[in-house]
UniProtKB/TrEMBL annotation:
Annotated Gene3D superfamilies: Aspartate Aminotransferase, domain 1, Type I PLP-dependent aspartate aminotransferase-like (Major domain)
Reaction(s) catalysed by this chain's protein: L-histidinol phosphate + 2-oxoglutarate = 3-(imidazol-4-yl)-2-oxopropyl phosphate + L-glutamate
InterPro entries to which the protein is assigned, alphabetical: Aminotrans_II_pyridoxalP_BS, Aminotransferase_I/II_large, HisP_aminotrans, HistidinolP_aminotransfase, PyrdxlP-dep_Trfase, PyrdxlP-dep_Trfase_major, PyrdxlP-dep_Trfase_small
TM region positions: none
Lineage: Bacteria, Pseudomonadati, Pseudomonadota, Alphaproteobacteria, Hyphomicrobiales
Associated pathway: Amino-acid biosynthesis; L-histidine biosynthesis; L-histidine from 5-phospho-alpha-D-ribose 1-diphosphate: step 7/9
Cross-referenced PROSITE patterns: AA_TRANSFER_CLASS_2
Protein name: Histidinol-phosphate aminotransferase
Length: 353
């Protein structure tokens, strides 16, 4: 704490990202990365781009990338906004669209960046409790609000909300901005993108970090009515008009077009998830139904923090959150089959017979 800090910074509880140790041989299942790597076409694009073009500023509007994303989703480029990871897209969204006289609503078990952004931008937020099965209960959102943000599937639970639920929220709140954070939608969830044309208050945010394996390149995007997108562009241009560098723009454009790689990788991840769920259940874990590239699982008798520490000693990294309702859960990213086998072997060593 310094006397030079603003009041907001003094009270800010910054988001703490999952650790990124560079230890060879580590089974790293703590930050929901994709074990299969980006499309080879994206890597090729980076190789070709590392030339004299780096001397020049990148296209501030990322036109080619926005056109490629628009084509994939049947939208126009004016309905697409891109940013430096969906975290940055979310930050601009909070600043541009979620501050109103009425409160912002989001679930109480969710992505912990939302409270941080709310505090940073002076947004009054109300956390709506999920039910005893960690499901979002739509009836509880039936209250006056200026905006709503729903992660779908939710994180860290992995539980998805059917499209009809999002549609009901939009119908009930035509005057509120409804943001659907679809960071994990490509692993079995239902995307709200088809609702955009009928709902000018809907903003869908996705990332290339998970299903396209771009976590290190930082590319995320928002889709919605051009008025919402224009608000994001205004904030972006006032913050940093070049959020995406040349390499990220070129690589992401190639990746978005590579459906074959995308489908193969997410198919493998979904198949591995299903077998991991069965193996965890056989070891007495309760596993929440996941539509994401991770599972959220709690052992019937062993505390989460102790299990995480014991796994770490065996060079297996998983995430545990020191928050009241969820502290006994482990959030386990879906790795390769081999990595998941190593996780299960380590658990068998740790758990009492
Ligand atoms: N939304 C949710 C729900 C997430 O879990 C994450 C990943 N931590 C993000 C957004 C941000 O992802 P990225 O910035 O890598 O696009």
């Amino acid at each position: 704490m310094s006397r030079y800090w603003s009041d907001i910074v003094s009270t800010l509880r910054p988001y703490v990202a999952g650790e990124q140790p560079r230890i060879p041989g580590l089974v790293k299942l703590n930050t929901n990365e994709n074990p299969y790597g980006p499309s080879p076409k994206a890597l090729e694009a980076i190789g070709q781009a590392a030339d004299d073009r780096l001397r020049l500023y990148p296209d501030p509007a990322a036109t080619e990338l926005r056109e490629a994303i628009a084509a994939r989703f049947g939208l126009t480029a004016e309905e697409v906004f891109v940013g430096n990871g969906s975290d940055e897209v979310l930050a601009h969204t909070f600043q541009a669209l979620l501050k109103h006289d009425l409160p912002l609503l989001y679930p109480d078990v969710t992505y912990s960046f939302y409270p941080t952004y709310s505090l940073l931008y002076g947004i009054e937020a109300v956390e709506i409790p999920v039910d005893d099965k960690f499901q979002i209960r739509l009836a509880d959102y039936d209250r006056p609000c200026g905006a709503i943000i729903i992660p779908n599937p939710n994180a860290p639970t992995g539980i998805g909300l059917p499209l009809a639920g999002i549609e009901a929220l939009l119908a009930a709140h035509p005057d509120a901005v409804v943001v659907v954070d679809e960071a994990y939608v490509d692993f079995g969830g239902e995307s709200a993108v088809p609702l955009i044309s009928a709902h000018p208050n809907l903003l869908v945010i996705q990332t290339l970090s998970k299903s396209r394996s771009f976590a290190g390149l930082r590319v995320g995007f928002a889709l919605g009515h051009r008025d919402l997108i224009e608000a994001l562009v205004r904030v972006k241009d006032s913050f940093n008009s070049y959020p995406l560098d040349c390499l990220a723009q070129l690589a992401a454009t190639a990746a978005i077009k590579d459906d074959a790689w995308f489908d193969a990788c997410r198919g493998k991840i979904i198949a591995t998830r299903e077998s991991l769920v069965r193996e965890l259940q056989a070891l007495d874990f309760e596993v929440l139904p996941s539509q994401a590239n991770f599972v959220f699982a709690r052992h019937q008798s062993q505390p989460g923090a102790a299990l995480q520490a014991a796994l770490r000693e065996r060079h297996v990294l998983v995430r545990q959150f020191a928050k009241p309702r969820i502290s006994d859960f482990l959030r386990i990213s879906i790795g390769t089959d081999e990595e998941c086998t190593r996780l299960i072997s380590a658990l068998k060593e740790i758990l009492p017979a």
